[in-house]
Amino acid sequence: MPAVTAEPAARAATARTPNNLQPYWMPFTANRQFKAQPRLLVGAKGLHYTSADGRAVLDGTAGLWCCNAGHAHPKIVAAIQAQAAEMDYAPAFQMGHPKAFELAARVAALAPGDLDHVFFTNSGSEAVDTALKIAIAYQRLRGEGTRTRLIGRERGYHGVGFGGMSVGGIATNRKFFGPLLSGVDHLPHTYDRAKQGFSRGQPEWGAHLADELERIIALHDASTIAAVIVEPVACSTGVLVPPKGYLERLREICTKHGILLIFDEVITGFGRLGTNFAVDYFGVMPDLVTTAKGLTSGAVPMGAVIARKGIYDTFMTGPDYAIELFHGYTYSGHPLACAAGLAALEVYAEEGLFEKVRTLAPYWEERVHGLKGVPHVIDIRNLGLIAAIELEPIPGQPAKRAFDAFLAAYEKGLLIRTTGDIIALSPPLTIGKREIDEIFGKLAEVLKAAG
Ligand SMILES: Cc1ncc(COP(=O)(O)O)c(C=O)c1O
Which of 105, 261, 291, 345 could hold 269 in an S-S bridge, CB 3.0 to 4.6 Å? Predict the structure, then answer.
């Protein structure tokens, strides 16, 4: 490594300079483009951000699919403030604090059936790695120690830990990072534009793709497979809605072969589809659910794994003074996150936000599909308060057309998200018809102007 040359005084001066953008290595960002043309947000309230140059920006993405109650909700703000003053932190191991138990009970009550034990993490990535570890350890504890293999899906996104990356199926997120976890296989993704293009809600075609799991099981043998993990709706890859009957079929095959089914509900949990969880929307019961984001409405980082009773109970053996699961994070169930989570769940219930999504979803669907026929739009997909608009890539410049649209929309005061050449939308659940009109009106202008 080159020697550090800056004098201490110079280094201190640099540290105080508020507009030095260089030291921050930004995540999942084109760092050089950003630092040449920064987009800094300095405030947020309700459905809008305020940019550093003083403009209101309509949040079409709930931050990063997370601020379901809108920004700076007074109830959530007050809860975090009060908790910070009352108790900043309590050790997570061999100690507890009341709000962690209260939040776990609330989350368990929201989850259906016997999904009734909650393990807290600080992010979706940690929730996924936790769920994968629980699945493998569970199989061992029930005497099936050869079941260590994990099955993910092409185009799946399960965060950026080595576990999540390994079961994930987005090539750019995997290819730089070596061989990843061994003993992982992938289902095919569920998307075929020719068969499903411009479907409204769940596509009719594609349930049979779940049968690929039987092929994978025949190859490896069920006795080597611990769990299958999928997002009920694959959001980060650009919103792939599960074909009708697909998730039901996955469930049947997993049950038949003693394989755990994990639903990664980091995005779909807490109202995005108009139900508590996607589990409720689709009526398909997994064994473990991972979640994060909407759990605290994005106000404090937090994730969670929700486990069925039988899984938790399997761990509760041995002497009662012994630790049952050698896993956890310093900040599991952090008091500030728990306070934010309790307040967020109250807001969702008091304001009827999940029901509101169910009422708004048909309008949302109508408006997004109204973009059919706009230049370069090659597919549109939607479910609940989620939508994707797929654009024809510029030849030789993949992802540029959508990125240009993102920049142009931001200039017009609208925040959207892009992945490859797909625009993804997931506004706060507090949005109304007027703002929905604004989103699609501005998007149509942007796409038409792009020519
Ligand atoms: C389905 C899914 N799983 C996991 C993650 C990772 O969550 P985090 O970024 O909080 O680690 C995400 C993030 O978007 C996600 O959508």
Answer: 291
In the chain, how many domains are there?
A: 2
Residue 174 near residue 168, CB atoms below 8 Å: yes
Q: Of 300, 329, 350, which marks where a domain is finished?
A: 350
Same domain for 299 and 217, yes or no, is yes
Domain containing 37 equals 21-72+352-450
Residue 124 lies in a domain: yes
Query: What's the pLDDT score for residue 17?
Result: 42
- Are residue 410 and residue 443 in the same domain, yes or no? yes
**232 and 137 both lie in a single domain:** yes
* CA 302–ligand 1 middle distance (angstroms): 11
327 Cα to the center of ligand 1, angstroms: 20
- 270 and 215, same structural domain? yes
7 falls within a domain: no
Burial of 93 from C-beta contacts in 10 A (0-12 / 13-18 / 19+): exposed
Ligand 1 within 6 A of CB of 345 = no
2 Cα to the center of ligand 1, angstroms: 36
Same domain, 275 and 410: no
Q: Which residue out of 29, 64, 126, 128 has the highest number of ligand 1 atoms within 8 Å of its CB and is therefore the one to mutate? A: 128
Enumerate the β-bridge partners of residue 230.
263
Indicate yes or no: pTM above 0.90. yes
Number of CB atoms found within 10 A of residue 245's CB? 14
CA 62/CA 385 separation, integer angstroms? 11
Query: Does 270 lie in the same domain as 144?
Result: yes
What's the CA angle centered on 336, arms 102 and 230, to 5 degrees? 70
Query: How many angstroms separate the Cα of 214 from the Cα of each of 225, 227, 263, 322?
Result: 12, 13, 19, 39
- φ, ψ (nearest 5 deg) of residue 426: -160, 75
Is residue 234 within 6 Å of ligand 1 at its C-beta? no
281-329 per-position pLDDT tens digit: 999 999 999 999 999 999 999 999 999 999 999 999 999 999 999 999 9
Which atom of ligand 1 sits closest to the CA of residue 126?
A: 11
Burial class (CB in 10 A: 0-12, 13-18, 19+), 358: middle
Co-location of 130 and 239 in the same domain: yes
Ligand 1 atom at minimal distance to the Cα of residue 292: 10
Closest C-alpha to ligand 1, atom 13: 159
Pick from 61, 126, 157, 166 the residue to mutate for probing ligand 1's pocket: most ligand atoms within 8 Å of its CB. Answer: 157
The protein residue whose alpha carbon is closest to atom 3 in ligand 1 is 158
Atom in ligand 1 nearest the alpha carbon of residue 267: 16
